[in-house]
Amino acid sequence: MTSAMWKQKILPYTFLFPAFALIVIFLLLPLLYSFYLGFTSFILTRHLGPKFIGVRNYVSVFFEDPLFWRSLEITLIFTLVSVTLEFCIGLGVALLLDRVTLGKRLVRTTLLLPMMMTPVVVGLMWRFLWDSRFGLINYLLGLIAIPPVQWLASPKVALVSVILTDVWQNSSFAVLIFLATLQVLPEDLYEAADIDGASAAQSFWYLTIPLLKRAMLIVLVIRTLFAFRIFDTVYVLTDGGPADATLSLSIYVQRIAFRYFDLGYSAAVSWVMLVLCVALSFVYIRILAEER
Asked: Minimal CB count within 10 Å: which of 10, 107, 167, 267?
């Protein structure tokens, strides 16, 4: 092989090899090992290695574990409500900001700050805000004669508190996507609609909404997948409590692995969770393909 052929065919792959090796070592191998653990009984406290048991873990997940179905229900409720609120708030705020001229940059920067914060910091901050005795939320409610609410200690209210915290942090992502799309929409279409006598509501329904469909799907895809596997914020705020009222699937996997030390069963639950995420991704990809 000549030097020119080597530079053209082999040399580019040598630059890719370090990145490929890191992906294999830190992503592919742990993923394959966790897949293997899902078919084993591996409890660390018994000081024994993994013991192959076939699909027994998966049978237990679907037919013998009511807590799994409870955590799945909580995760679906959290995902549906939080993504819906973030979508609506993001679209509304983006439409308002698209018309703002005074202090536009300052307002946009301020709205994007929550998205730049890490979930752990957001969880700690809102844990103090939700505090039933010293929190700012109950203090403000007390000013209008509303008694203190056990935001993180009541099973009826805890999930609402977690959802509102997530909405506060991630609505800015929807604002960013919608606002970026609104700013590149063709003005001539709206001018033609005005000439034809279309009202503002008709322009919004028949022009803005169709032109925003791709952005809407992007927001729904990304936020649904991230909300479905939420861990950090819930762990800091409630750790799945009280009485498992905020037990998401990610918290459930973490609890099985690091509280009960059952690595085999936790691997099986995590793979079920992964399959559900992939299924949601395929649904959205199919919708995106049909929109083309």
From this structure: 10
